[in-house]
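idk why but the lab printer keeps eating my pages so im just putting this in chat instead. protein + fe (ii) ion:
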Amino acid sequence: MMNAGLDIVDLGRWPIHALDTPAGTAMVAGLRAAIADRGYATLEGFVLQATAAQLAAEVEGFVDRAWPGIDRATPYYGRMDPPLPDPPPGHPRLRTSPRRMAQIAYDQVPAGNGIRALYASAAMPAFLEAVLDAPPLHPMACRYQSVNISVMGAGGCQNWHFDGSEFSTTLMLQKPESGGDFECVPRLRGPGNENYEGVGRVMDGDRSGVVTIPVPAGTLMIFRGERSLHRVSEVAGARRRLLTIFHYDTRPGLVGSLAINRTLYGPRVEPQDETRGPALV
Ligand SMILES: [Fe+2]
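predcted complex ->
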């Protein structure tokens, strides 16, 4: 049993501390099947509503620390994988959509916060390894990227994009009054098939393949976003959308590069010892 750091988790419903028990085994099997089938799993009530509300209230207390970053981006965030030296005008590699979100960096989340405790727990990476059938996962050693809180006020949104990492792990703390939906076109691209035509259609407003994934407050989501184009629709109303993002990696001691961290978190970012691991892209 591994309970340390899991105070905010409803372990009765989601026994991530007891993977070897019948309940733990059944939970992992169900989540693995969901990910194989749909590319994602949602764990509703991972954190009880009241706990999520309390965590959100704490975040509201330091929400002005969030850094807005860039306001538009391509689905690829400028990455060129595979190389495409000279895309023609109008190509999805060159097209951007709005990104109106800010991020709170790891070092801005106060010590003792339940989100930090969950991230640092032994149970969380072990649970993700089991569900994703992944090699051992480690928390990042990065002062900024390890855990982030995405903040979207009225008008906030995230651009259509593919993730650069194999999977993402998020915890919804607070939903807005309306909008702020997680929208996804599952498996729009695959190995050796970038499907730029399909990406262009979605960016033109084609909704035929778009799925909206319900993510109530308190839900943990494990998502494979490398192949599925996704975004967050525009937030409406006064209540902010607050989402925690946990970054684990198979490479121990990973630290984000100075350039990327300054883009994501602003000019206050200081150099770190980057020799412990390669830069996150
Ligand atoms: Fe993403």
